[in-house]
Amino acid sequence: MALPTAPPSYAEAMASKEQLFPGQQQPYPMQQPFPGQQQPFSGQQPYPMQQPFPGQQQAFPGQQPYPMQQPMPQPPTVPMHPSWAFVQPSPSPGYSSGYGPATFSPYPDPSSSGSIEAFAMESWNNQKIRHTFIRKVYAILMAQLMVTFGIVTVFTFCDPVRKYVRNNRILYYASFAVFISTYLVIACCSGIRRRHPWNLILLAIFTLGMSYMAGMLTTYHNTKSVMLCIGITSLVCLAVTIFCFQTKFDFTSCHGLMFGLMMALFITGLVMVFTVPFGYLPWLQTFYAGLGAIAFTLFLAYDTQLLLGNKRYSLSPEEHVFGALCLYIDIVYIFMFLLQLFGSRD
C-alpha cells in the first residue's frame, strides 16, 4: 500500500513550471501595473485621490478655515411683550384663524389626509378653549356688574344710606386706596392673579372698592339721571361687543391712538385740578367727560378683541381674571363719565 506524499513546495512548483514552459519570463498580464498607475514607493508622487480637490482649502495654521467653521449669523432680536399677551404668528397665505393663534400641521404634505385631519382637530381644540375662556370671563364680569349696580341702586334709592355716604367722605378715600392697591397687585403680579382662590378674593375686594366709588358718585345726581346713564352704558357696551365680534378692524394694533387718548385725558384732568381755585368751568367739565367716555369706549373695544383672540394680540386662556378686570374697569368708567356728561346734580 502506497503512502501519501507531501505536496510539492513552491520552489519545486516553479522549477516544474520552468521545465514545462521554457523561455517564459514575462509575468501574467494581471501582474503588470495598470496604465497610468503610479507606484507608491521610492519617493514618487501620491495617488491622484490623495491630492486636494479643486478649490479645497487646507485647515492648517496660517490658512483660512472651512466655510462651515465661520461664525453663524445671529438671529434677529424679538421685542418683548407683556406676560398676558400672546403674539399671533403670521399665518400662511390664504388662511385666517377664527380664534386663537395660528397652528401649523406637523405633517410635511399639506394635501395628505393626515395633515387635514390634524389641522382640523387642532383648530377645533383652539376654538373650544377660546370659547370656554370667553364664557368664563363674561360670567365673572356679569357677577361684578350685578354687585356694582346693586350697590348703586341702594345708594340711589335709600335716602339714609345716601345721606350717610355723602357726609362721610373718608370712606370714599379708603375705597380709592383699596381700588388702587388691589388693581396694582392683580395687574403686576401674574402669579397671584392665576392662583386660585387668591385671584378671586382680590377681584372681589377690587369690585367692592370700585362699586363704592361709583355708588358715591351717584349720590350727587338725581335718580332719573342715574337710570338714564345706566341704560346708555348698557347700550354702548352691547353695541361695542357686537361690533368687535363682526369687524375685521384690529384695535389691538392701535397702541399709538390709545396712548394719545390717555395722555389727552390725563392732561385735561390736570388742567381741571389747577383751575379749581378759579371757579367751576362747565365747558371744561363737559370736554373732559366726553373725552373720557370716548377713550374708555375704545378701550372696551380693545379689551374685547384681546378677549376674542382673533387679532394680532390676544389674552392667554389662563388670564380669565385679568380679562374680566379690564372689561369691568372700562364699563364702570364709561358709566362714570356718562354720568358727569348727562347727569343732573342735586
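(the above was protein one; protein two follows)
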Amino acid sequence: IHTVLTDNGTHFTDPTGDGWTPDDIKAMRKGNVPFRCHSFEMASADLDIAHRLTKPRHPWTNGQVERMNRTIKDATVKRFHYDDHDQLRRHLTDFIDAYNFGRRLKTLRGLTP
C-alpha cells in the first residue's frame, strides 16, 4: 500500500485540515520537535503511506472506493483460504495485475474521438 484515500472525517484527519505531510512528521520526530498530529496521519507517515483526502461534498468517490474494495474481497479472501500473509499478498498482486491489464476499461471503448 502506497496511498490511502479517505474522507475528511475526524477519525482520519484534523477537522481543520491543517495536517502535516509525512515528510514533516518524520523530520519533526527525528529532530525531537514537539508537535501534534492525528494518530492516523502519524501511522501513515511511519509506514511511508501517502494519505489523500477526498473532496468535500463528493460522496460518490467513497462509493467507488467501497465498490473496488468489495471486488477485491470477493476475488480473494471470500474465495480462497490463505496459510499466511505472504500467500495473500502474492495472490492480491496477481489479481490486481489481471484486473488492471486484462479488463477493458469503459473509457477505452471508442468514446473518444
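Reviewer note on protein two: The chain has two domains: 3-53, 59-107.
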